[in-house]
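Dear colleague,

Following up on Tuesday's group meeting, I ran the structure prediction for the two-component complex that the binding team flagged. I've pasted the input sequences exactly as they went in, so you can double-check that nothing got truncated or mislabelled along the way. The structure tokens for the whole assembly follow below. Feel free to forward this to whoever is handling the docking comparison.

Inputs:
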Amino acid sequence: MSTFEGQGARGKGQVEIMLNGKIRGISVDTTVLGLLSELDIKPQGIAVELNLEIVPKSRFGEMILKDGDKIEIVRMVGGG
Amino acid sequence: MDILKIANREFKSRLMVGTGKYPTNEIMVKALEESGAEVVTVAVRRINLDRSKESLLDYIDLKKYTLLPNTAGCYTAQDAIRTARLAREAMGTEIVKLEVIGDEKTLFPDNEALLEAAKVLVKEGFIVLPYTNDDPIMAKKLEDVGCAAVMPLAAPIGSGLGIRNPYNIRIILETIKVPVIVDAGVGTASDAAIAMELGCDGLLMNTGIAGAKDPVNMARAMRLAVEAGRLAYVSGRIPKKLYATASSPIEGMI
């Protein structure tokens, strides 16, 4: 069973998260820092929100993503 | 020295510039340079996981510019507060241009939600610069809840119509003590000069520069107009009169 509606993205030893509005399968025990590294995103100039709570950069390494987590990763873009 | 003071920050330039809608990042860099701006606005958006790793911040020297994140595109107080918090976390800055939009077509602010969001963010220690209507009552309410400046619109965002209601802007200037920064709707240099001649403390613009055929030269034009308008304001213009007054002496005529 997929946590989210529609097609699941979970393989063996994986959990499913909602990353910036899209379902993604990641390995069990992946931390926020691990996910960023997998995505090749440097922690500078970004903010991470997990289930509507901001994750301080100091906690990226210890915060383990669980099945069903909703994570948002944002950065600055051009705007007025 | 004529300094613009917002909360605990001081700026020599009274022109703030947006970073959206330039034809290329290289043109944006040159336009920011020509504008003389010290404050540049940015928006907060999801990281694009599919595209290149190129980031806007690769083009903006953070030693030179103060970033002013906005909450553009937010239609509720809750979303605006959430966006402001994310910007603070990402950039380590408490300053925010607070926008709560009420309507897609006009992009006019939802002032009720704006005030609600402003109260929350001020309490959380943000330096709140709210984008609002040219409404003196609203401006006063925003000042009263602790906003560090108020930013009334000249005209709808991106419209280029210039100051639609100079009399309201004048009343706002008489009513409140925090800086008044006209934000949105400036189309060309004379619009900028008019805003500054009214006594506004500063001006924020994006489309007027980014959307011009030559954004780099328009940025320079806007810088000169803001400087000229400010200088004219502090110099004290002559009163308007219906009839002529001779500049040359009448005595000694042959």
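The helical segments of chain A are 32-38.

Cheers,
M.
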